[in-house]
Amino acid sequence: MATPSRSLADDIRGRSDAELIDLVLARPDLARPAPADLTSLAARAGTRASVQRAVEALDRGHLQVLEAVVVVGDGADRADLLRLLGTDERKTVDAIVSDLWRSALVWRGADGHHVVRTVPEVLGSSIAGLGVPMRELRPSSQPEDADPERIRATLAQAPDDSRAMLERMTWGPAFGVLPAAPPGRTTARWLLEHHLLVPVSTDRVALPREVGLVLREGRLHRSLELTPPDIEARAVSLVDAAAGGAASECLTHVDELAAAWGADPPRVLRAGGLSVRDLRVTQLALDLDPEHTAFVVELAYAAGLVADDGEVVPVWAPTSEIDEWSSSESGHRWATMALAWLGSTRAPHLVGRRSTGTGPANALGPDVQWPAIRAIRREVLRELTSLQPGSAADHASLRERLAWRRPNRSAAVLDEAVEAVLREAEWLGVTGRGALSEAGRALIASPDSVDDVAAAMAAHLPSPVDHILVQADLTAVAPGPLVGGLGSFMRLAADVESRGGATVYRFTPESVRRALDAGWTAADFIETVRRSSRTPVPQPLEYLVSDVARKHGQTRIGGAAAYIRSDDEAVLDTMLASRDLTPLRLRRLAPTVLVSSADPRVLVDLLRDNGFAPVHEGQDGTVVHAETPRRRAGSRRRGPGPTVSPVDRPHTQSLVDGLRAAEATADQRRVEDEARPGPRIQAMDPVVTLSLLRDAVADRHGVWIGYSDGHGATSRHLIHPQRVEGGRVRATDESGHEKSFSVHRITGATLEG
C-alpha cells in the first residue's frame, strides 16, 4: 500500500482547478507562502501544524465523522462507518466526508477513503473517549483477544463489581487508577486476567479500544450531533429604538470619559494599563458599574480616542483624533466605535480577573489582549443574523450552538466570552432588547464601510434637544441628549444624578462654584438656565446661585509670596485661628491682608477644603478664572500599516494557475532528466559534495555533477576533478577542456559508473 503522504500528493495532483481552489479557501494557511508546486502543497497540507489548524476549525458534526473514519480504519466500507456512528443518514454522512476530503483531511484511494497520517496525532490517543487498540497496549496479544465475540462472551461472565468498573470507563476516560483497597484490587485483577483491562504502569490501567466499542454496543459517540442545534428565540418589539438609545448613552459615556481624562489624566502603570484606583475614580465619574466602565475605557482605546501620551511620566489622555470625532455626525461617531469594537482583539470582560501574573488584569493592560475574542464576536453576530429581524436569542441555546460550531474550545471559557459579547453588544447598541438591530446587521454585512454602518444607525439615534426642564428641588431634566453648548454647560454647572431615557442633573453649591470659577457670572448663569429651560427658573435655584456668588471671591489670593486679602476681618481671624491651616504659616500684614509662602493655587485648594470660598487674583487685581485643562496625547508619526493580501477566490485562482504551470514544468524536467545520459543526481549537503570531490581527485575518478548557473537553471556535467581549493574545483570536462566550477553552485554529485 502506498504511504499516506505519497497518496495524498497523488490525490491532490489529480484534483481539478475548482477543487484545488476549494481546498485553499478551506485552509488559507496553505497559501502563505505560496507553495512551489502541487507536491509542495500536498506536503504542507499533511504537516501537523496545518492539520491541527484545520481540525480546530471543524464543527462537532465534522469532528465526529472524522473520528469515526479514524476508528474504522483505512478503506473501510461506508456501511461500517454508518454502523459506528449509529445512524442511517447516509446523505448527511456522505456530505460531511466530502467536506473532509475537500479540506484534505482525508484522501481517496483505490480502496476508499484514508485519513491523513497526522490527523490521529492531532486528535490524540483517546479518540471520542476510546482507548488505543489492543495491539498497541499489548504487543504480545493475539488476534482473538480483540475479537468482539470473544469480548462479549467474557463480559457475560464478568462479576457485577467488575462490570460496574468497566461501565464507569465506557464513555471515557479510557485510563483509570487501580483502587488501593483490596476489594477494588480483586475486581481489577479479574479484568486484567481476562484482558479486558491492560496495565500501563504499576497503578494505572487502560481500557482497550475494542473492549470500549463492545461496551458502547458498537457506537462511537454517546449522542450523535451531525447538524447544529436550533436557536430558541422570542419576538421583541422596538429593537432599533432600544439600540439607538443605548448607542446614544454610549456616545455620552465616551464624551464624559474624554472630558474627565482631559482635565485630570490618570497615570500609566509601569507594566502598562490603568490602575484599579483610577478605574474606580472613572467609574464614579461615569456613574456605571465596574464591567461597564471597563468596556467604555477599552472601547475608547480601541477606537483611538484615548492613548498613552508617551511623555516622561506617561498618562492616559484623549488623543488629537477625539476633537474631530466629537464634531462628527452622531451616526459616524457610533460607526467608528462599533467597527473598532468588532475588529478589536481586546476582551474588556477580562478586566479584574486573575491573570497569569501575580494580580488581576488591569484595564488597558496587556493581560486584556485576547485575539480569540474577535472571532467569537463575529460568530455570535452571525448566529444572530440567522434569526428573523426582531427575534432575541435564548442565551443558553445560542451558547450550545456556538459550542457545536467550535467543540475544541473550552466550554467554560466560551460561555463566559459569549455572555460578555452579548452584554457589550447591548451596551453599544448593536443589539436592542436582545435582538440584532438594523445597524448591527449592517455592521456584519459591511464591516469595511463606515458610511453604510453610520447610515443604518443615524435614523435611530435620538435627536439632540436644546432645552431642559428645571424643577423646584434644584434638579433639571434633559429629555434627551443635549446639543453641544448646552451639554457642556450642564456638565460644568450641575452634577449628573441619574441617566436613562432622560438625564437628571442636580445643581449644588460645588457645581455652581465650578461654573463661577470658569468665568460665569451669576447673571449669565441664571440667564442661560432661563433661556434653556421650558419651565420657569425656581426661586431656590436663584437663591443658591446668588448665595454662592456673594461668597465667591470674597476672599482673594495672589502671589507676592502669596497674599490673602478680604474686606471681612472676621474671615481672616477665622483663618488665623484654624489649626488645619497652620502648615500655611499665615501672617497678618494689615487688618484685611494675610501673607503666606505657599503657592497661590495651593492656598485656593486648602482654603476651599476648609469651608472658605476664595478666588485667585491676578497681579492687576482682576480675578483669574480657572480654565479646565485639556490634555491630549501627542500625535505620533505612524508608518504605513501592514499590507494584507487576503486569500480570496481571485488570489486562489492565480495561485492554482501558478501551481499548474509549475507542475507541468516539473513533469517536463523529470522527463528531460530521465532522457539525459548518466545517472540521476540527487541534491546533497555541500559538505558531502566536497568530500566526494576530494575523493575523486585522489582516485582520479570521474564525477557527474549538477551545476546551477546565474539564472537558477541546473545543468549536468561529467568532470574529472584535478584539485579542490579556495571554494572552486579545477577539472576537465567531457571535451577535454579545463574549467573551473564554484563549489557553492554544485547542487549534487555522484561518481561515474
Short description:
This protein is an alpha+beta fold and 753 residues long.
Number of contiguous helices: 31
Beta-strand fraction estimate: 5-15%
Distance between the termini: 33 Å
Record field, number of beta strands: 26
Query: Which strands sit side by side, in order, in the main sheet?
Result: 18-19-17-16-20-21
Mean pLDDT: 84
Largest sheet: 6 strands, mixed
* Gyration radius over CA: 39 Å
Shape: elongated
Q: What percent of the residues sit in helical stretches (DSSP H or I)?
A: 40-55%
Task: Find the structural class using helix and strand composition.
Answer: alpha+beta
Taking pLDDT < 50 over at least 5 consecutive residues as the criterion, the unreliable ranges are 1-6, 635-644
Describe the structure.
The chain has 753 residues and is α+β, with helices and mostly antiparallel strands. It has a six-stranded mixed beta sheet, with helices on one face. Strands 25-24-23-22-26 form a five-stranded antiparallel beta sheet. Strands 12-13-15-14 form a four-stranded antiparallel beta sheet. The longest helix is centred in the last third of the chain and has 27 residues, at 649-675. The protein starts with a helix and ends with a strand. Residues 617-655 are annotated as: Disordered. Keywords: ATP-binding, Helicase, Hydrolase, Nucleotide-binding.
